[in-house]
Amino acid sequence: MKIGIDKIGFYTPHLYVDMNKLAVARHVEPEKFTIGIGQSQMAVPPLTQDSVTLAANAALEILDEEDRNQIDLVIFGTESGIDHSKSAAVYVHHLLGINPHARSIEMKQACYSTTAAMQLAKGHIALHPEKKALVLASDIARYGLNTGGEATQGAGAVAIVISANPSIMELESESAYFTNDIMDFWRPVYSDTAFVDGKFSNEQYIAFFNQVWGQYKEQTGATLEDFEAICFHLPYTKMGLKALRTVLDETSEAVQERLLNHYQISTTYNRNVGNIYTGSLYLSLLSFLEQAQNLQAGTKIGLYSYGSGAVGEFFAGVLQPNFEQHVQRDKHEKLLANRKELSIAEYEEVFQQTLPTDGSTVELDINQDPAIICLAGVTENKRQYVNKNN
Ligand code: CAA
Fold first, then answer.
1. Which residue CA neighbors atom 38 of ligand 1 most closely?
2. Residue of 189, 197, 379, 387 with fewest CB within 10 Å of its CB?
3. What are the domain boundaries of the chain?
């Protein structure tokens, strides 16, 4: 039985900053951000968007009534969750009107957790082929103003429906994964910004890629030639390229050229959104599915997932007939094109806005936010969410 991605949705907030302007404000050459890091724009979440609303908005665009009835597992991957106890999945389950006979949980292992969620969902569907699973990947990447990581922030979510006989991509069973306890990037529970050993994190991202790619080759006998493209977790778009370059000499010039060209296409949306942590790999996959020309059914795509701390995994998917009818290129291009640019001063102001932590009540102006699902305020330490369609 084929199991894999039946639907894929995406959402990012309506605000962004231009990386050229951020570079000027930080007294850095713009090419460092646009070429050296490889980012053109960076999504900025207003206070009315958090990891719950971003995920709910991403899922809203793909779910129909049949999905709402058939989904019996909701897994929310995030490292910017809003509660240490209650899972973000329960909020989204309610906001989207999914039937109550479902399991809803949140998972964490930095940017890797969505991949674990996909694999668990796959196992669940193997046992219950008539059901569907909703996998949510949603994050707000925050390092802080004027920090080394600032140019690699971002915000957004990807929502994926996993089912039997999927419309978009079958996920293959072979997979190579690796865990090692390292401190490359972490966020203690008392901090709302991440701590990072930047250079070390880059090295480990590549070391884990080499590790799992080597393991995958041993397990499956695969070579680079077997893949039309390899999509990477993209904390910033140059990162995957650095990893890809370390293995290119394993193959012919023609295959190298194909993988490099397709790599660029797979970074299209990420370049204008920034890091969305748990969703970054899947945003890269979405970029490739929606922006590449003439992709055929049967095409194999490699996927490299990395979550600091750290866990890495390499696996693959195979495109299904007419998959292009199940992605939404125009809609996602419009979502990005219709955003509002913030000046650097406006971005800094939005960045520093916070919700109360003393139990006091705040009401937020959701009319300023075009998203359908918004955070409308906080009362007695409870976040108040609104679905404008209800
Ligand atoms: N023109 C073109 N390129 C330029 C340039 C210019 N004028 N000036 C500098 N550059 C290049 C540099 O040569 C360098 O390129 P290479 O890496 O190819 O050598 C690149 O721009 C970046 O320059 P620096 O290394 O000096 O950048 P930095 O030290 O200021 O910080 C960073 C870069 C370490 C990625 C930092 O932004 C950071 O810490 N980010 C957060 C951590 C991160 O994203 N780590 C990625 C792996 S961990 C992971 O994947 C999990 C996750 O999601 C966080």
1. 149
2. 189
3. 3-167+327-387, 170-324
Cβ-based burial of 188 (10 A; exposed 0-12, middle 13-18, buried ≥19): exposed
Q: CA torsion 3→300→7→176, rounded to 10°?
A: 60
Give residue-wise pLDDT tens across range 310-327: 999 999 999 999 999 999
Query: What is d(CA 347, CA 267) in angstroms, rounded to the nearest whole number?
Result: 24
Ligand 1 centroid – CA 33 distance (Å)? 8
Note the CATH number of domain 3-167+327-387. Answer: 3.40.47.10
The DSSP bridge pattern shows strands 340-341 and 15-18 to be: parallel
Predicted pLDDT at 173 = 96
| Entry pTM | 0.98
Using the atom order of ligand 1, give the atom closest to the CA of residue 29.
Answer: 7
* 170-324 homologous superfamily: Thiolase/Chalcone synthase (3.40.47.10)
Residue range 161-193, pLDDT digits in tens:
999 999 999 999 999 999 999 999 999 999 989
Percent composition of the chain: helix, strand, coil (DSSP 3-state, to 5): 40, 25, 35
Indicate if 170-324 has the same CATH topology as 3-167+327-387: yes
pLDDT tens digit string along 10-59?
999 999 999 999 999 999 999 999 999 999 999 999 999 999 999 999 99
Structure tokens, 360: 């006091």
